[in-house]
Amino acid sequence: MGANCCNPASSRATTRLSKRYRKILWAALVVNLGMFGVEIIAGIRADSVSLLADSLDFLGDAANYGISLAVLGMSLTLRARASLFKALCMLVFGVGVLIAAIWHLLSGQVPDAPTMGLVGSLALLANVGVAALLYAYREGDSNMRSVWLCSRNDALGNIAVLLAALGVFGTGSAWPDLLVASLMAGLAVTASYQVMRHARQELAEEAEAKAVT
């Protein structure tokens, strides 16, 4: 066995790390639920697909953090399976946003740029704070990686929403909003693929290890 397995100090450090990570996940869960409520109301009132997409992303991330809290400390196999489920949720989110963008394109609605800018700025601050807390865990297992990728994508998405608000304000058309919403959908699909591939690799390695023993 490795030295760390018999090292009490290492065990205590791992326990402290786990407790700190759990607290961060709880904080992220509360922040994301709160921002979901803010953005979905603002998105509906402003007729903004990118805000609606971001609100659903906040809801998906809240579920992501909740699942991560539930499986924290469980076996790698269970955590990897949870990651596969979260990857599927990210994929569904991406497809849903694309459908919403097409619907708004056909309806010809122009979103309210000031609302997009104000709410997008608030969302950016929230997501940058969460991403900063999770940065140290970005290279963990597939479950930790999925949490980090969601937070990173959220911050990038918020910046894109702000750019969309500027575009809508400057052009008076819905195209910047629809374009950003589509880009956010693409980020979700890409992250889904990355997490799914990582989780499948972990499951394969666990199956191989069990077969050897």
Describe the structure.
This protein has 6 helices and no strands. With 213 residues, it is mostly helical. The chain has one domain (21-212): Up-down Bundle (Alpha-lytic protease prodomain-like), CATH 1.20.1510. Helix 3 packs antiparallel against helix 6 (175-212). The longest helix is centred in the N-terminal third of the chain and has 39 residues, at 8-46. The radius of gyration is 19 Å and the shape is elongated. Residues 1-15 have low confidence and may be disordered. One of its GO terms (molecular function) is zinc ion transmembrane transporter activity. Pfam families: Cation_efflux. Residues 25-203 form the Cation efflux protein transmembrane domain.
Number of domains: 1
* Share of β-strand residues: under 5%
Helix content: over 70%
Distance from N terminus to C terminus (CA atoms, Å) equals 15 Å
Overall CATH class: Mainly Alpha
Overall 3D shape: elongated
Gyration radius (Cα, Å) is 19 Å
Give a short summary of the structure.
The chain has 213 residues and is mostly helical. Helix content is 86%, strand content 0%. Keywords: Ion transport, Membrane, Transmembrane, Transmembrane helix, Transport, Zinc, Zinc transport.
